[in-house]
């Protein structure tokens, strides 16, 4: 193991500031001697802002390293973010960031001094937002990268004490209005960091220390620098494709109190009437909320399967039903084996799993054998289960689309398909029996969220792993020299939704096209979708007078499954190095594949 | 070495991650390479945690050397 990984192996993101700062200093010393491990994801982060945010920047570095991300961080000058963002020749842009973080708070609003009785606060808020829009626009133009922008926290001080929200020109009322308008008008390249939630949740009188603010305009009290860094880290992780997808739950003493095998249906503690039972029920409600937003739920329990399922089918206070669980595993095998099984069954990586278990021994064995799985340290008292999981926010979403709410149903339908596959001898017959129908078309308005999300999340069937943001996608859509395609797939088991994304860059001068991006959700593997899409691509090439298609494969740790995709599709490999593989296809010589997919 | 001097030396060693630091009353930020304005705040914060006290704004801003730091801690610890 690399020295750095050794040092950060037991990193506790909620340890004290001095402790974390010391660890940060140690990582700096190590990185002066040598590079971060080669498998770490490199990223260039520019932080600009109004006050002193060095402590946040230092801990951000630490938290990112602990998450397997190796950042190079540019720290802007004190109170200089507007100038840096608006000047195309500033050090911010010479740095060429992959992401820009704007560390500001309510004190950076320019319109506060205009608040007086009778002022049109909506118009004033609009004026304020237009000054921020200029900053974002400039960054979009000169750095072409996503921005993380703090929202505006309601201040510690109230102009009118308890009358605050009733007086329209009070800071409290105005900033609340502004925060909602900001969220509604946010451009596609900006990700909101919910500073207002952090300051409220931790308490504004704790978050800000007036001494440090007067001394050096510190962004927050030092004991909250870690909280700040952890919160930003979660957004950056999702942005770099490090996404958790599935919450795996233990049953006894986790989803309910007691042991179903010993205590029986009437003996377990669950639901109203028992305070402990209510705490376990609260965890079920929390899991259910995650499910509605697209997180898969799985069960991993040491139990006889009949016993394990009994509360789900027969207990009146049970909130979760069997239909909510995408994968249910109850047996007496070691939990690491079962987690492996869950990952395989759902066709997701072990690094997409979060494992919740009340038993410290089970948590420890999973940490030992499967370090990729996130295993939160659960409190002994079930009363705190939900709070801890909410604080850790493993499933931080950057977007929400209607399809997210349907994800469990899609995965379950997929398991039904697998079962059907086992009972069908011939693969061709099986695929025909699926009665697949595809809609393949250029990106539509309604697709952009989902396309951006697939681009952010897909790791395995992903030829180039280029993480284009929404704004870039809009640019491709509008550009003459880009072709975009998305694939939606339905079959007799249900709608798979939008499952593949394809982007090609046309070079009219040479009559060629290079495939910039091609990715597909793994839940539709081995069904001929890639062959079908290639047929469509070649048709489109003929329409556009393109004679040669260039395919690019950029190897990562996770996309080995598509290493020979272009070869399988009839391309000729022309260059292979460690970092890239290039192939070409002569459009005239392409023979269309037979597939079992119909266009609709 | 007094208890406070010993504890304060521990704080310095932890904050600067250097087990060899030996503090003296006339030591200033000039004597420790990494002692910049950020580390100054870290140092104050670590002292507050270690000795369970709070520095006033004016004290944070005016501290010149280890002797002054020790004097403030001593006065706050005995009252």
Describe the 3D structure:
The complex is a heterodimer of chains A (600) and B (79). Chain A contains 23 helices and 17 strands. Chain A has 600 residues and is of the alpha/beta class. In chain A, the strands form three sheets. Chain A has an eight-stranded mixed β-sheet with strand order 15-16-14-13-12-11-10-17, with helices on both faces. The model of chain A has no long low-confidence stretch (mean pLDDT 93). With 79 residues, chain B is mostly helical. Chain B has a single domain (3-78), classed as Non-ribosomal Peptide Synthetase Peptidyl Carrier Protein, Chain A, CATH 1.10.1200.10. Chain B has four helices and no strands. Chain B starts with a helix and ends with a helix. In chain B, 22% of the residues are buried. The mean pLDDT of chain B is 89. The chains are: A alpha/beta (600), B mainly alpha (79). The interface between A and B is medium-sized, with 21 and 16 residues.
Poorly predicted regions of chain A are none
The CATH topology label of chain B is: Non-ribosomal Peptide Synthetase Peptidyl Carrier Protein, Chain A
Supply the helix-strand structural class of chain A: alpha/beta
Q: Work out the helix count of chain A.
A: 23
Spatial extent as radius of gyration of chain B = 11 Å
Q: Assign an overall shape of chain B.
A: globular
Q: Work out the count of structural domains of chain A.
A: 3
Number of helices of chain B: 4
> Do you know the CATH architecture of chain B?
Orthogonal Bundle
Strand content of chain A: 15-25%
The major pleated sheet of chain B works out as: none
The main sheet of chain A orders its strands as 15-16-14-13-12-11-10-17
Distance linking N and C termini of chain A: 52 Å
Summed up, what is this model?
By secondary structure, chain A is α/β, with parallel strands linked by helices. Chain A has helices at residues 3-8, 17-33, 54-66, 81-86, 91-94, 121-142, 171-185, 195-202, 204-207, 210-216, 225-239, 260-267, 275-292, 305-314, 335-346, 360-369, 385-392, 407-423, 427-433, 448-457, 470-478, 529-543, 565-568, and strands spanning 41-49, 69-75, 99-103, 147-150, 190-193, 246-249, 296-302, 325-331, 353-356, 436-441, 482-491, 494-507, 512-520, 548-553, 572-576, 581-586, 597-599.
